[in-house]
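Re: your question from the hallway

Yes, I did run it. Sequences:
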Amino acid sequence: MIKRSFFALSKPRLTYDLLEPDPEGPQTIPVPDLITLLLTQAIDNTRPALIKPGDPVKKGQKLALYEDSTAYVVSPVAGTIKSIDTYPDDFGEIGTSIIIAHDPEKISEIAPLELPEDILSADLHLQKLPGAPPFDILADENFKIRTIVITGADTDLLTSTSQYVSTTHARELEEGAAILKRLTGTARICLTLPEGINGQDRFSSLQVLKTSSVYPDTLPAMIMKDHLDTVLPAGKTPEDMGICFIRAEAVVSLAKTYEKKALVFEKHITLVDKAGFRHRIKAVIGTPLSHIFSQLDIQINDQDRIIIGGPLQGSATFTTHHPVTPDTDTVVVQDREILPKISDTPCINCGKCIQICPASIPVNMLVRFLEVDQFEEAADKGDLEACIECGLCGFVCTSQIALGQYIRLGKHELHKLRAEV
Amino acid sequence: MNNTKLTVSHAPFWHDGDSVFQKNLNYMLALLPAALFGIMQFGAPALGVMALSLSFAMFWELVINLVSKKTATIGDLEAAVIGLLFGMMLPAVTPWWLILVGTFVAVFIGKMIFGGIGSSPFNPTLLGMAVLMMSWNMFFDFNTAYVDYDFAFTALAPLTAVKTQGAAAADFFALGDLFLGREVGAIGAVFGLGLVLGGIYLILRGYARWELSVSFIAGILVTAFLFHAASPDAYAGPMFHLLSGYTLLAAFFLITESASSPVNRIPMLLYGFLGGFMIILMRNVGDYADGTILAILLVNVVSPLLDNIRPNALGKGMNNA
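Structure:
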């Protein structure tokens, strides 16, 4: 954890980690006996489901709850469904977890994949590729996507997954970008890469946007402002502005899928252990984190924290059995001894958040509205919706207020309020 | 399956390790040189006044915590800083009951009834001081306060001298003497050098904002210079004003109080300048010899207004394309 420097006349500067010049290959985690897949749809007991415990599944088989479900998962292994259960996400939204018992004997059942030639069928079959390509957004007629930005620069600290995948798989990345262009017809495809990284010259067909090493310059809103001359209006998403961000790994997975004519399931992950040591690993989607920890000899104790994502934007999981999902780039393990405290001290108006906020939000005002659940006022006078959720205000807060939590909850409640009207 | 109970919370998962306790501890540390000099100059009574003031301030906060059935908050040292500053602004011979009343006003009316830390619209220390000054003005006459002392320098309160005898009285005091504390005044306000060192320390550590201190000093110097230039006989020069009275204490420790000051850069610059301007205005035109306390309380009022001058948030107020 980066601590405050003794002299702090100006705002602190957090910098992204740059990929080492000759990165070692990832350690492959063996496929576990049980695979957990998370489906974003809740079980409806009144309707007959398409899947039930005991059903055999093939490798590459699409699993959905009902005939008309749009949410689906793809089994990365052959085996049988062991159990179907519910799980709550960060905001208490209920999803479905499907546990599949892996049967290594059954390997010959992969049906040959029909390669999608348009974006709609890509959305129907390839949404769960490692890297979680946002085909749903690209296929949506409401968004007129004119620019696709491939994020080769990681958006959070400590991690180098995107940098690693984009520079070591440069050929696949370019091929994937070509496939993406063919599927979507998007004219402009750019790639973000940190300045100073080795191998920038490997991309001849892509426009490379060199991002600075200062956090949070690689966040979508900042990329748009600094490189694409588009200011993201408060409360809008990049898609609303015709810009779609896609992980480099998703593009690489796309190219691999077309090359092998079969789905790929291995996800690259940067795992930072308690000592801060970085493990580069490759694990099949659905692998429970507990399996990875036991493979790497990482001991998890009560009150430790497991963060999916980076230290400033990630989310903490409540169970060590949380699986690797298509968008899991980073896992950070924090020992309970080093967990920073959260306090209920009110804002003391020191102004450090104002100094560091990249979106010029009056955080001191904002938190006063959010503390008393005045969400509309927070949006109106506190610029709640302009927040890009970089987490810097919470990082520097002298009062140790959980600003990130207040803001995320505030946005969530605001959307709920507006939906009710 | 083992069921490890993990800690779950929201991003960010890092913190720079700063805290209100650290901030206040550093404030007290920065106040030490001036406070120690006060003890050297005015002897044990000065120590008594500051110790009493500091402990009364914490005592009142604890009492209010207990009465309102809230968690005790004195551990964050906010009350201690209020108490220490309060003690440092008093003459060394202040009677105990005055301190008792003053710290009560400062902590209770200045801070706690507004909701405690961070919510006070006025600088709590100054609110307490203002009430004392209005009610028992005779205890703040630094000329009579130290009649029993025997000093090796002009035992004349500089600002009162200038107020009563005109700008020529400023010549009694060498600027170097004022800066090095060879003057009578409040315990912690006489040692200019110590205050400047402490202030610079706080600014470098990031606990006091340079924008406030610098613009405040600029406000003092510019305004005093203009007055002095207009009528050198009636008004003392800018450096005299900067080094006398509560000015330096205010520049680094009072105007920078976070709850009652703005947070955006331009408002901070305006606020500081306005504070300095008001002090000189009160000293030169008003009734009080040292207008610092009332001047800062007055600019506290405009702080929220000034803070409306701020940059547009990212993507805010634009026509949605």
